[in-house]
Design goal:
By secondary structure, the chain is mainly α. The protein contains five helices and two strands.
């Protein structure tokens, strides 16, 4: 089969694949990635996201599944949970420096893909 000229998105995926190979370790699954995206978007807009907000996202999975994925994100160092001082049952989900570095790496891959056309 003859190779076709890759689009910017295909080049982005190739750069992402390279990034994954140079930083071994547990990778985020699709649900974790979607949760982290929601958390990062919320933080960029100054929104307070609680665990209860995230586990109510039924389109991403059951409450048990989402709670487990949030705990995975905490264990991997992408988010931290801050307890509400007035009600310890309420926990705010906040992206960490590692999460922000993840998005900087994604941005660098996107910029490379766009420049290499």
């Amino acid at each position: 089969m003859k190779a076709i000229k890759p689009s910017a998105y295909i080049r982005f995926l190739n750069f992402m694949d390279g990034l994954d190979r140079i930083s071994p370790g547990k990778k985020l699954d699709a649900t974790e990635e979607q949760l982290l995206n929601r958390i990062a978007l919320g933080a960029s807009q100054g929104s307070v996201l609680l665990v209860s907000d995230l586990i109510s996202l039924r389109e991403l999975g059951s409450q048990a599944t989402l709670h487990g994925r949030i705990q995975n994100l905490v264990a991997m160092g992408y988010v931290k949970l801050n307890e509400d001082k007035a009600d310890a049952r309420r926990k705010q989900v906040v992206p960490t420096v590692k999460a922000m570095k993840h998005y900087e790496d994604l941005s660098a891959c996107l910029e490379k893909a766009l420049k290499s056309s």
